[in-house]
Every structure is written in structure tokens, then in C-alpha cells.
Protein 1
Amino acid sequence: MKFLIMVCLILVSQIVTGQGLSIQQPAPGIYVHFGENEMPDTVNHGAIANIGFIVGNRCVAVIDTGGNPEQGLALKHAIETNTTLPVCYVINTHVHPDHIYGNLAFKSAGVKFIGHEKLPRAMAVRGSYYVDKALEQLGIHVTADNIIPPDILVKDSMDIDLGGRVLTLTAYTAAHTDNDLTVFDRQSNTLWMADLLFIDHLPVIDGSLKGWLGILDKLEHHSYKLVIPGHGRIVTNWPVAMQPEKEYLMMLLSDVRALIKKGEHLEKAVETVGHSAQGKWKLFDQFHRRNVTTVFAELEWED
């Protein structure tokens, strides 16, 4: 019994100092700020995603920088509070603003930005819209300088060494977006999935439903001690905790596909598909109809 209690205590994240940014340490050298499951708005200023950093013996890798420039600075201060080692890498897991708007805080000599090979194009295509809407939608001021494209591109997979700590970065085909990247820390057996995993927050499709399901099928067969989602609590029971997301995505696939085969139109799908899941997810009303629309467009012309 005492042994089980000790194991549970080890799994519970330690609360560490973050100078204004709440930081947890779920494993040695891994630090996470957990965002709230909210819509980005002028109250939270887009600071809604899980962000953090991993510390090696030589340097630090930042994983996503936050939803506004001030959060990026707060994350930088949290790093400086918890280690004297320099930041050597900033990893952007995908293009969405809640993960990249803090980039400028880390722009300095010796820091390399890393992203999916398709991230530069996504930033270029969306950048002006993001900048134009930041004040209206988030109540923040950003410019093109805040959207920093990667210096190092990941096409398939890549290892980076923080000094006695190797991280494996993996790029995927279209799923949540067309530029998703995960980070695997071998030392702690932790997978940082970012927005390929949503817990409690409704999954949001901005890429490919079928691609996303294919990725989950592959990752489901791996064993991880910890999995860090892009939104929601940390996962210690992989792959069990992933099943609600997979079931929701599979429901979209089967129900929308069935309507299309019947010759039904998008309007019918939006009004009927998946509403029984409403009580199971936060932000369902904000994202579900959009998901159905995206999935309908993807499946409408499949063979």
C-alpha cells in the first residue's frame, strides 16, 4: 500500500515557481503551463494552450511560446527562474496563434526555431490575417515580427540533443493542421502531442480527419508514461485517455460519410451529425458545426 502511495505521489506534478505563470513539473526536467479550456478572447488574450520547456544538461528546448507576446515573456522568465541554462531551441508544434504568439520573446543569437516543413508556408498564408485580427479578437498588439518561421524544418523525424537528453521531433501528414509536430522525450518516456490530443476540450479539425485518425491509430500502439496534450490535463493512462477523442473523430467519419452516400447536403450534416456528444465536451457549441463542415468537404469527393 505504501509503495502504491509513493508511486501516485511521483506521478503528481510538482508546482514550481514561474514568476506569474503557473508551471508544473510532471517529470524531472519537464515543465508545463496548462492553459484553460476556453475560447481565445479579449479577456484571456489568447493564452489558452499548454506550453512549456524541457531542460537538458546543456540547454533548454521551449515547446510552444503562448498566445500573446506577454505570455512568451512570462514563459521566458519562468525558464530563467528554474534553470541557469540557455534556451537553444524553440519548437512550434503548429501554426495556431495560441502556440506561436510568444515567439519574439525568444528571438536571440544562439536560439534556433524548429517546426514542421509546412509551417513556414502556413505562417506566410495566415500571418497577415492573424496580425489584422489580433486586436479585435484578442485585445493584443502583434506584428509580423511576432510570427517567426522556423530555422530548422522537420520533414519526417529529427533528434535534437539538449545535453544528455535527446528529443525526437516527428512531423505528420495533415491532421489537426497540415503542420503538426510532436516531441518525444526518451529520458522520461513523455510524448508532447500538442493539438493532436485534446482532453475535455472538443477536438478541432483544421487539417484532415482521416489523417488524424491514422496518426492516432499508430500512436495508440506505443506505450508512454506521460502524454501532454495541447489543451487539457496531462495524461498518465495512455492510450485510455485518448479514446474519447478517437471516438468523436470516428463518429464524424462514419456519420458524415453515411449522409454523403445517401445524397444529403452539407446543411443536413451540420444540423444532424454528432449532437448527442454535446454534453461530453467543453466548447462543443463553438467548434462542432465547424468540424462537420470541414469533414464534409474532405469526404465529399473521396473514392
Protein 2
Amino acid sequence: MQLRKDPISQNWVVQEDGETSRPNLNACPFCPGQEALTPQSIYSYAKGQGGWEVRVTPHLHPFYRIEGDAQRRAEGIYDQMRTLGAHEVVIESPHHHLRLSQQSDENVAQVLRAFVSRIADLKKDRRFRYVSVFRNQGEQAGRDSDHPHSQIIATPFIPRQLVYELRSLRRYFALKERCLLCDIAKQELAQQVRTVEWDSQFMAFCPFASRLPYEVWILPIEHHCALEEDLTTWDRQLHLARFLKSIVRRLESVSPDYHLVLHTTPNQHAKFERTDHWRTLLEDFHWHFEISPVRPATSRSYFLKEVSFNSVLPERAADELRRVNL
């Protein structure tokens, strides 16, 4: 595998020469008793003297590999490098069919704790510029396995969408000396037309320009730039676990399949970053989860792929989600 950069869109693309053959496994490698089918655990939590409740292992078929360096090189005007990075699987529960929304509050809090531990550890590696978490639930979302799991990826570049987000947040802060997402949170809580749920610590809302029906963002009400620096106590982790479960249950009422992605700060210790680039990062960036339900497509042609078409107004979507009987 190799990484190639599109000089026009600035996207990095993982390129592979042919499909990688994957062995057919008769047993789920994520279930208890099958630990030998996965690489050795990097992180594990066990309750008392029982078996593991949450564990993290390297991905069986990783996009990114942790050994060596990026070997950045040019081919004429083009840029490419090795698929340096990390690709890990967070096995969220020993129970094969127990969705995140069905797990106990304590178990989901332990999953969040695993996120915090692994992100903090990977950010110590100066080769990695960005670390994030994503979760694909359901066949339509392209899940790797029926077993409940999330994935953590560390890359030697910042994804393009995050670059745009960083620039927008920095420009807003330069103009107003305030965090844009803090201001959005205040306005949404004041208007309460796109809010789905909120309490003293977290809020969830359908963005004003939602890209997809029932798209929901979750963010802390108070300003925090990085998840791993915010969720440092058990009480905070448990509070978010309850909140996240509630939002996911609401979304599952309209679509059981979804993508969940964490947006957090880039690695400020990366060896290719300049400190002057991130002078206001701690003040202008606000970590959040973006959840995009996957529903049957409604075909509409459009000449620009990056202009989304959303058939459900976010105000209506938020109202429907608020009314879900949990």
C-alpha cells in the first residue's frame, strides 16, 4: 500500500495494487476465547477477576502500519509516501450482538476511557499528525464485523475536511476572539429548534446546514479542544456515556446504521508542525462527535458532488428525534 496526494483536491488516498486476500475465519476473532485470532492486545479492561470487558488490538488488515517512517518522496509534481500510521480496533464488549446503545453505562464509559488512553498514547509519537476515532454500525455503513467495535486511526497527515475545519475555526477566532462552536452551541440552546438533547455538560443538535437527514453533532457545552484532555475523570466519562447512548438510541429509531467520527485537535507534537500555526488552537478548536445515519438513498442528480442534498430539514429532524420515546 502507499499514500498518494491529489494535487488538486489535496486529498490523500490509500492506494493498493489489487485486493488483499483475507483468510476466511470460522469464528469471530473479537469474541472471548478467540484472542489468538487477533494481534496481542494494546489495551484491556477487565472487571474484577472476570474476563475482559473492553480491549484494543491492532487491526487484522490495517490501512496504516506503525513501523518505520513515512518515506515522503516526489514523482514529478506528485507527492507520495508509505502508509505510515496506526490502525487499531476497540472491541467494545465481549457480547457479539450487543450494540453500543444496548450496553451498560459503565461499559460505554470504559469504551470512552479506552479512546482517551489510546489517543493520548498515539499523540506521543511525533510521526503522527492526526489521531481520530470512527465507528461504522451496520451493513450499509460498511462495518468490518457484526461484533460491536470502533476503530482508531493515526495518520502522518491531517485529513482535508479537518484542514478546512481548522481554518474556519481559526478565522472566526481571529475575527471575534471567540470559539465558533461555543457560539453555535449558545445559539442552538437559545433557539431550541435544532437541538435534540442537552444537559449541564453536553448537547446534541442537527447542524443548520446538515449534509444528511438526521445528521447529529455531540459536543461539550463548556469549551474543550481535545477529547483526551476533557474526559479525564470517571464521572465525566460516565456522563458522556449516558448521553451518547441516548442520542444513538434516538438515531437508531430512524436508521440502525450510522457512521460516528470524532473530530479532535491535531497532534501538536508532530515533527512537521510549526508552533506558530497553532497559536490559538486550544482556544479556537472544540472537539465533537459527528454522527451520520445511513439510510436508503434518494436519487437526485447534481453537478458538484461536494454540494450535499438533504431531503429532511434539520429542524424537522431534530423535532422527530426529540420525540423518540426512549
Protein 3
Amino acid sequence: MPKLYTTDRILRFGDCDISGTAYYPAYMNILNNVNEEFWEHIGFPWHTTIKEHGWGTPTVHLSCDFNKTSSFGETLHFEMAILRVGTSSVTIKHRISCEGETRWICKQVLVASDLAKLSAIPFPDDVRAALLDWHVKADEIDF
């Protein structure tokens, strides 16, 4: 069984357009919040890495496929798999579902970045080790 990070989010009124359908920019904000929660879960909360250590993990690549709309009040289930851990980048695949039905899938690359110099840096050894602990092979997941 692959090691996946999972969490749930309820679609709030502010996440939706006037028809009650999830608004895709809100999806990106929710996805970012899930990423932030994951980093805290593995012991590297962003408020510490950014404020105390001066590095962050901006997104440098993002591709999404939307399979079906989601609506105000629904609970979305997020699954997150670490597919690749490089020297300074991490590739993540996300599946977002509701009641077992895939709503959207996303592939994302984050890069460790020195926030003062705005340039890529290697992950600290302890961060890289924590990410490798969550690494799965693409063929181990079904999304």
C-alpha cells in the first residue's frame, strides 16, 4: 500500500461561483492549503521554513484535469503522492474526489527556493529525508 497523505475539505460559499459550483481559482488556494498542511505534518511548517530559515517551496509547474464539477457544501477528499524527490524539487500528484468519484487530478512540482535570492537551493538533508519517506512509484498509485 503506497504512503499517501490524505485530508478532507468542505467546499465553502466563498469557494464557489454564484451557481454554487466550485471556482477553479479557489481550488488552487485549497490545494495550496493542503500542501501547507502536508509540510507541517512532516515536521517543516511553512511559517518556520519561511520566517526562520528563509526558504520556501514555490510551485514551478502545475497541470490539472477537471473531471466533474463540485458544489458548495460537498466534502472533497484530497490524496497526495510524492512521485519524485530531486536535489531541490519535489513532484507531487494529487487526486481530489467526492464520495469516491474523482473530481480533478493535478501534478505539481515545487522547488526549494532561497527567498532572499529568489533562486533554487538544495533541500536541507532532513527535509529531503522526510520527503523520501513519503516517496511512491507512479505505478503504485491508481491516479
Protein 4
Amino acid sequence: MPNLKYILRRVAGMDYKQMVEVAKTIHQRTGKNTLGILMDMVRCGFRYQAGYMDYLVFEMYTLNDAQRKTYITRGKNNEYVRRLNPQENWHLVEDKIEFLKRFDGYHGREWLDLRECSREAFQEFCKRHPKFVAKPLSGTCGRGVEFFEVSEDTTIYGLYDMLKAGQQYLVEEYLVQHPDVSRIYPLSVNTLRLVTILSHGQAHLVFSSMRIGNGKQVDNLNSGGMAVIVDMETGKISAPGADKDGKAYYTHPMTGVELVGCQIPYYREAVEMVKKAACSIPELGYLGWDVAITEKGPVLIEANHFPGHDIYQFQVHLGPDKIGLAPRFDAALKG
């Protein structure tokens, strides 16, 4: 039964102007009547807790009711989070420093908290790692993340003060990804997104993809990147890339690499790592893990207590039956 409180909140906070623009976009794609599209959007909102962006991204205007009910929509994703991730435990992965401390041994990189270290300690860090990443302590979609490369001419103390003033308190050793991953796109660290559900003490892998950059130094979709599906058995890319607009990429537009069939190194080790990590944090039962692949093996970048559901069901990633992922997630919940 639809979550009435969720629906009422969504109705109250809806950007109706944007909703109409989305309906017009779908009209241009399909030729369907805009008013009819809007009415169907509203119906999907009430019946499947689907926002208008779900309706667009998942191309729900092409689906029948039997297919639509299998989709993890915004409302369904919120329900998974509500059931499995109590808000009082979000800080365990939300605060990047707390995450690094908790998963020491999994993340494979040196880091500093500029709130607690001196200028001299930062200078020594820069000598060891002249290329590094600076981040705010919280946030998503690559916001506030910057890459630095220092030299003998760099004023280290001034850089230290600048980072603190910008609240980029976390500095991390720059990770060099595996050459086979870099070959696909070298300008960003392209990360696996592995989603686990913890049920009855067992971690289940329910989604497996890789985000790949496209023109920028970060790989997430909100910065122009794309997502591919990685087969959970073989560790090979099994479907074309898709960007935030659902556009399909069979080859990477900047490198020309054919995506389908690429083998992700250390994939099985990455899966075992996130399952072990998931079992070590039973306070949160539904997590999206970001994993980088280095020459030495997989390392954890971060975990997300509110995994973005937008990459779950691009049509180019689904089979001809167009069935969504809710049955797989619900089966994992039952153990």
C-alpha cells in the first residue's frame, strides 16, 4: 500500500513547473498528449510512489502496470532506507572521517584531518603524496572535491590555510587506478557502485555497476558521467553506458573503448570486500559502496546510506521484459 505520508509530502513540495516541462519533453519524444502524460504521471505517483523524474528516467510511459510495479522508485527507495537505515546511524558513513576510521584496512590510502593536524604535518603529507584529493567532510555528487598536485614552488602553508577556510578538511592520497580501468577513461577514478542488503546476518549483493567519467575528473552521473552494468558472475561490463538522460553509449566518446565485454580487474575480490564490510556495520542494512580498483586490488572510497536509485533501471540496462529491480531487492530482504 502506498505510503500516504510520503505522498502528501511530495505533493506539498512538488515543483509543478518542472513537472510540466518533463511532460513536454516526453511529448516531444513520443507524440503523446501532454495532458495525458501529466495524468499518467500523477497516477504513477500515487500508485507506485514514482516522482516525475522517475517517470522520465525509467521511461515509465513505455511500461504497463505489471512492469511498473517492479521498479524501485523514489518512494520505494526511501522505504528501503527507512526500514534498514535508522537515521541515528547515518553518521557512521555520512562523516567521511568517521568512515575512514571505521573501515581502516579497507580503504588503502593515507589521509589527514586538517582540523587536527598542524601545518608541518600537512607539509610532510604533501612530500609523501604530491598529488592528493581534498574533500569536505560530507556531501555527495563530487561537490567540493578538488585535486591538487604540489611542487617545490607550492606555498604549502598557504594551501593548508586555503583548504581549511573552504572547509575541505579531509585530504587523501590520490589513488592510481588499475590500467585496465584507466584505459576506459583515464581522467577520473572510475568506481564500482556495489549495493548490499544485510538480512539475517548475511550480506546480499543486489546491484552491480561502474560509474565512468566523461569529460571531468569525477565519475558520477550528476557531473556528466555514465553508468554501466557489471555482471555479478563474470565481472564484465554487460550493458552499454547510460548517462543521466538515459542516452546510451556503446563506446566511450572520449577514448573509443568498446564498453560491453570489458573485464573489471579484481571484481570478485571487490564483491567479497563489500560483503565483509557490510557485515561489519549491522547498524545500516542497505548501503551503496563505491570501490576503486588499483593495481594491488579493490579499495573502499565511501559508503552511501541513501543510495541513489536513479541508476538502477535505465531501459538500456534492462532485458526485453523491462522488469525492474524491486523483486531482486525484496528477495534479498527475505534472506
